[in-house]
Amino acid sequence: MSRYKVLLYLLVPSCVAALILPVFTFTSLYPAIDNLLVSNAEHQARMVAGHLATYITVPSGDSLRPGDITPDLRDEIAKLSESFALEKVKVFSDEGEVLFSTSQDEIGSRNDSEYFHTVVLRGKNFSKMVSKDSRTLEGRAANKDLIETYVPIRARDGVAGAFEIYYDITSLKGLLADLVHRASILIYGVSLVLLAALLASLGKLSGSMAAREQAELALARQRDETEKLVAHRTEDIARANQQMKNDFQRVQAAEQGLLASEEKFRLLVEQASDAIFVADAETGIISYVNRKGQELIGRQAVDIIGLHLLALHPDDEGALYRKIVARHYKSPPAGRTLTVVHASGRLVPVEISAAILGSNGRKIVHCLFRDITRRLRIDEELQKADRHKVATQLAGGIAHDFNNQLTAILGNVSLAQIEASDDERMMKRLHATEDAINRARALTQQLTAFARGGEPERRTVALEKIIEEEAQSVVQGSKVSLECAIAPDLWPAFADPGQVGQVIDSLVTHAANVMREGGTCRVTADNAEVAEENLMLLAPGRYIRIAVQDEGSIIPEDRLSRIFDPFFSSKQKGGGLGLSTAYSIVKNHEGQIQVTSQVGKKTTFVVYLPASSEQGSVAAPEGIIASIEGSGRILVMDDEDIVREAISSLLEFLGYEVATAVDGVAALKVYSDARAEGRPFQVVIMDLTVPGGMGGKDAVRKLKEMDPAARVIVSSGYYSDPVMANYSEYGFDGVAPKPYKLEDLGRVVKEVLTRKPA
After folding, report:
1. What CA–CA distance (Å, rounded) separates 509 from 470?
2. pLDDT value at position 492?
3. Do residues 477 and 548 share a domain?
4. Is residue 260 one of the residues assigned to a domain?
5. Of 495, 426, 508, nearest in space to 462 by CA
6. Which residues are CB-contacts of 608 (< 8 A; sequence separation ≥ 6)?
7. Same domain, 21 and 157
8. CB-based contact 560:597 (threshold 8 Å)
9. Backbone φ and ψ of 352, nearest 5°
10. Mean pLDDT estimate for the chain
């Protein structure tokens, strides 16, 4: 090739390049830079959005809500805004509502633009370069060069929302424009220099063409070798990268397995039914406490962690617990109940077991505290029940024998009063004798009420009137004033109204006795719902809660624990059976009775009685039979001669013909013989218990087999047998508790005789 052709080939392209370069700069280079900026910004926006999306958890099929914008997400947006020159970041819901924006005034606004709903919410990215002083897609005037990018937030079933990210490219765009401008000037200068150099070198070019061709061939060979080497190295790097990726996945899987194992252990410990404390074996400083431990102490974990184990126990016994903690709770003192201090100041009895474990090169003590409050309460109730069982058996036996004697005495006094009705002096003495008998009778009634281990006559009953009348009758005539506060919507109780009245009588009597110089007795009644696992040892359900509070002296703690024991009294005078009787009655009703006595809080007895699901009412008093006299034949069975004679005298006085028998066997024979002779008995009165013989319980069954129409009355001074409470279930037609007067016996007999057969 001639040098002129070479010059021509070099000169023409150089001139063309000099002319085309400005056009190329404005038509291709600047748009290419813009596209590069937009592409780069969109790529970074996807990365930023993908990173931010990890801070959002979107349920399947759901959309973003304001509650999904967590504080961690806000903090991360703030950090990324500083690191990536983000001018603004927004988070949209799938309905176009702005849930979050770095400009607070935009939160709550909506984006109803077509591009947002037709492009972004269909899962596509959308970007636009916004030049300074132009408007964004949302119509906002831009005071900087920006790139506005929308990146959808994907859920499992679709798009849950979108990020809108503004990149500030003012400085970057200016830098690139300046770089292009300088490059253009440099290119123009270089072109002119090249043209001059070409003209100056033309002479030398011819001689160097061959050398250049050879150099080009050598360069090509070198390039090929370099490309092969690069390809080889690229394959090595790819293999290393894949190996690193595999190693990373294995480490990640191992970490996830470890985290899952730790989570299972944490859930197991947190859901444990006992309190668990973990502390350093050497320092005793607590490093972990589970949920049950927080409940046991009454504090949050943040308040417990960092404390010494000694802080869990009473300060006034520090010397004892220092030794126990130093031995890591091994071999605690025999016969000593360990306690921890609740945040309220209450001491909670606990059982403690501990083990020393190794963890990260140090020893820790793993302590398990079990609350035994309920168990101690059960033990206490069982001991109390045992004491009551012995006492009730003794009281029942005494009352039974005493009532037999009183039956004879009271019956004869009743007859004597009738026969001596014209002798005023004799009547006065008989009335005094009757008063003394009635006082003895009241004592036996208290004994029998205490000894009633049988079933109470429970029914649905309203307690409002019973509570008020019993309490008022006790304080009447004393220096004690009464305040009653009964809930207007008080539930009816499933109870024996007579026995409930006895409970109120005993509690108010105790209050009156400790306030002999005057004071106020407050009686309240309301409804209470009792949950499971309660410390009162009650079955869960609805209860009526009755409280009796006095203003007397505080009962010492050692006396308080024995207040319901038989024959134990907290006052100078008293038989000590009133509160024991109340305790027995409440227990027989499947209820609970408690007492508290603290300085400044007075003494309060609280009774829980089961509520009934039916509507209660107070039964009207039974009608009084106008006349108790009658006629007919009556058979009396009792093993006590004096009782048989007294009952016979009373019945004969009322106009009845009486025959007697000492036990059930004899009574059955007398009854059978009378039927055979055509002179049957209209009523049979049977003693419930006959030592060494057949009593009324067995005799009435055989008698009913003999004569289903027989009318039988059970008579006893021993109320512990359930027959006295539910006599009809055992075949009896009436009940006559001993002792009784002429009127009492006559009324029962007349009622049984006049009752229509079932």
Report:
1. 10
2. 93
3. yes
4. no
5. 495
6. 528, 530, 536, 538, 543, 544, 545, 586, 591, 592, 593
7. yes
8. yes
9. -125, 130
10. 79
Tokens of 225: 């070798």
Token pair listed for 266? 């944490």
Share of the chain above pLDDT 70, in %: 76
Name the residue range of residue 527's domain.
463-610
Q: State how far the Cα of 464 lies from the Cα of 12, in Å rounded to an integer.
A: 121
> Residue 344 burial by CB count (10 A; 0-12/13-18/19+): exposed, middle or buried?
exposed
Among 288-292, 390-394, 606-610, 673-677, the range scoring the smallest mean pLDDT is: 390-394
Whether 653 and 704 share a structural domain: yes
Residues 445-487 have pLDDT tens digits of 656 655 554 457 778 899 999 999 889 888 887 888 999 999 9
What residues are paired with 536 via a beta bridge? none
Same structural domain, 20 and 168:
yes
Instruction: Please report the pLDDT score of residue 398 as a whole number.
Output: 62
Task: Report d(CA 638, CA 405) in Å as an integer.
Answer: 12
Residue 193 domain-assigned (yes or no):
no
Task: Tell whether 473 and 392 lie within a shared domain.
Answer: no
We report the CATH number of the domain holding residue 389 as: 3.40.50.2300
Q: In the numeric block, which tokens belong to residue 544?
A: 């009526």
Whether residue 396 sits in one domain with residue 367: no
Ordered DSSP codes for 276-307? EEEEETTT-BEEEE-HHHHHHHTS-HHHHTTS
Domain count for the chain? 4
> Mean pLDDT across the stretch 413-424?
69
Rounded average pLDDT over 316-334: 78
Q: List 460's β-bridge partners, or say none.
A: 494
Tokens representing residue 465 in the block: 């009137």
- With a cut of 90, say whether residue 200 has pLDDT above it: no
Q: Which residues, including other chains, have CB under 8 Å from residue 19's CB and lie 6 or more apart?
A: none
Domain boundary among 150, 172, 194: 172
Q: Is residue 495 part of a domain?
A: yes
Residues forming beta bridges with residue 164, ordered by sequence position: 90, 150
pLDDT of amino acid 671:
94
| Measured distance CA(411)–CA(740) in Å, rounded | 7
- The C-alpha atoms of residue 471 and residue 555 are separated, in whole angstroms, by 22
pLDDT at 202: 57
- Whether 376 is covered by a domain: the verdict is no
- Select the more confidently predicted residue: 539 or 703: 703
For 357: left if phi > 0, alpha if psi spans -120 to 50, otherwise beta; the answer is beta
Which of these three, 127, 154, 172, is where a domain ends?
Answer: 172
Task: Give residue-wise pLDDT tens across range 597-636.
Answer: 765 568 899 999 999 877 654 443 343 334 788 889 999 9
Please return the burial class of 160, using the count of CB atoms within 10 Å of its CB with bins 0-12, 13-18 and 19+: buried
CB-CB contact of 279 with 289 (8 Å) = no
> Buried (b) or exposed (e) across 4-43, using 16+ Cβ within 10 A?
eeeeeebeeeeeeeeeeeeeeeeeebeeebbeebbeebbe
Q: Which DSSP category does 310 fall into?
A: G
Q: How far apart are CA 85 and CA 166, in angstroms?
A: 9
Q: List alpha helices for 298-455, DSSP H.
A: 301-304, 318-326, 373-419, 424-451
- Domain shared by 345 and 389, yes or no: no
Pairwise pLDDT comparison (551 vs 36), residue with the higher score: 551
Of 376-390, 400-414, 648-662, which one has max mean pLDDT? 648-662
* CATH number of the domain where residue 495 is located: 3.30.565.10
**Single-letter residue type at 722:** P
Binned at pLDDT 50, 70 and 90, residue 703 comes out as very high
CATH number, domain containing residue 49? 3.30.450.20
Which residues have CB under 8 Å from 358's CB, separation 6+? 364
| Residues 628 and 755 reside in one and the same domain | yes
pTM beyond 0.70: no
Rank 401-405, 623-627, 688-692 by mean pLDDT and report only the highest.
688-692
Report the chain's terminal Cα–Cα distance, integer Å: 145
Question: Mean of the pLDDT values across residues 551-579?
Answer: 63
